[in-house]
Write a structure and sequence with these properties.
The chain is 37% helix and 13% strand. The protein has 341 residues and is an alpha/beta fold. β6, α4 and β7 form a beta-alpha-beta unit. It is globular.
Length: 341
Amino acid sequence: MTFHAAENRYETMPYRRVGRSGLKLPAISLGLWHNFGDDKSFGVQRDILRRAFDLGVTHFDLANNYGPPDGSAETNFGRHYADDFRAHRNELVISTKAGYYMWPGPYGEWGSRKNLLNSLDNSLTRMGLDYVDIFYSHRPDPETPMEETMGALDYAVRSGKALYAGISSYTPAQTLEAARILKEMGTPLLIHQPSYSMLNRWTEAGEPNLYETLDAVGAGSIAFSPLSQGMLTDRYLNGVPADSRAAKERFLHENDLTEEKMGRVRALNDIAAGRGQSLAQMAIAWILRERENSSPVTSALVGASSVAQLENNIAAINNLEFSAAELAAIDEHAVDDSLTK
């Protein structure tokens, strides 16, 4: 069935400027890390993507190795793009990344110029695109000189294969260095994609912390895993479902769900209920909250295995305001174990 996008698709979603750039992203973006590989229904994928766009989600985030198998999320997205979204290319922000393992041999991962640029060409072919809007270095490379990795991003932009350059999971110090090198090359750092949630607050640690660093260099941020791989939902409040990620030990392990941690999650769930939100909605809203001395997170990157889950997550935009009392109550339970040891 031919896709006809909703005429009111821009009426409810807030859009936020990315750092000091001219680009704006929806407050909630759709990530294709899970649920868009060959192990998932192509029809369900189509329904999720169509509904996301109808609700104002203009940003779709991928990486070369998303699947399974590796690359299949981009291939499947390319089919959806050809069927439904080609006419809307000017309205879309499509991103991809390279840096994690993708193919065998010495050139199939990390941050060399060869790996990044070969990977970008492969991604464009899989998706049927002339360019991506954002191309990321997916992770810092401890061995490749930063100048080489950033030089590859600069070339991707100058060649017209990407419009903007981004980085993911870089420390504040690495972010400063990456931004410095890119600025000298004439391609500013647009955005950083860190993991961030109420149970994973590393971005708030350090002097300066990551958000203060991004403010200093004029870059934005988009948070991945804002629901801590499902821990910040109602999925595990009463045990571990047999079909869950934790039961299958995919990105989340049962031993992560300690009684102490789940007690804190249940307390957060009670706070969410008092706000008239699901726990997932509050967790996403908290990511997008205003904060002192630094800009807010530009966008929260969510996944979805169904249209209903997508709609529930996007409904977080209906209440992004927190009182001081609510934030204080959340801070009692939103503890990052790695920062307290």
